[in-house]
């Protein structure tokens, strides 16, 4: 029997921009959220397709809560101004889906968000879809092609717009960082989802192979079609 609720959700959610979140991934997220009720954490939200799918599962289940963490272009006190206001777009989607009661955003990059997470609060379901390079640190240099593609005007800081060539925030950002700071917060028996296990994203694949597949701490539940699911032992 088809999942009518999911089908209805997907019919709406597929119109939210998310180039690497097809229906099969969305269905997997939805079902895992239903099976792992409680505290759900999403790392990397962009416009919110996965956020509304996970949030809808929580809402339909009637228990639990979703926490979404993304810098949404706000890094170290400066906001990257571009043609799309992705922070507003995400919030508009959450409001349109009436999910404010079950979804809480944290506008910070992964490491900063993890530092503020309560030490005694464990996670039931962890979905990582953040930075896709294995490891990057130091100044964030935006390539010219990205400046053109996304219509980046510059960085807004203290009311002044600074050229992207003159402001380069320095911080650690990496798939490895996302895993290292958040996986320990997942409870024993909790579920990890790692998105974009694809040759185009070798950094994410490396994290999966080195830290999940090669570790006795995890039991692999799913590892195909560019998405991995593992249960913490």
Task: Please provide a written account of the structure.
The chain has 233 residues and is of the alpha/beta class. It has one domain: Vaccinia Virus protein VP39 (Rossmann fold, 3-Layer(aba) Sandwich), CATH 3.40.50. Helix content is 35%, strand content 25%. The protein contains eight helices and eleven strands. It has helices at residues 4-13, 23-35, 49-61, 86-96, 110-116, 144-150, 175-182, 202-213, and strands spanning 39-43, 65-70, 74-75, 78-81, 103-107, 123-128, 154-157, 160-162, 186-195, 218-224, 227-232. The strands form two sheets. The chain has a seven-stranded mixed beta sheet, sandwiched between helices. It has a four-stranded antiparallel beta sheet with strand order 3-4-7-8, with no helix packed on it. α1 (4-13) runs antiparallel to α3 (49-61) and α2 (23-35) runs parallel beside α3. The longest helix has 13 residues, at 23-35. It is globular and about 45 Å long. The chain starts with a helix and ends with a strand.
Task: Compose a concise summary of this entry.
This protein has about 230 residues and is an alpha/beta fold. Helices cover about 35% and strands about 25% of the residues.
Task: Calculate Rg over CA atoms.
Answer: 17 Å
- Look at the structure and give the mean pLDDT: 95
- In what range is the share of β-strand residues? 15-25%
- What strand line-up does the widest sheet have? 5-2-1-6-9-11-10
CATH topology: Rossmann fold
Low-confidence stretches: none
Large-scale geometry: globular
Order of secondary-structure elements: HHEHEEEHEHEHEEHEHEE
**CA-to-CA gap between the ends?**
32 Å
Largest sheet: 7 strands, mixed
CATH superfamily: Vaccinia Virus protein VP39
Quick one: CATH class? Answer: Alpha Beta
Question: How many E strands?
Answer: 11
Total number of domains = 1
**How many helices?**
8
From the helix content, strand content and strand pairing, which structural class follows? alpha/beta
Oligomer: single chain
Q: Assign the CATH architecture.
A: 3-Layer(aba) Sandwich
Q: How much helical structure, as a percent, in the residues?
A: 25-40%
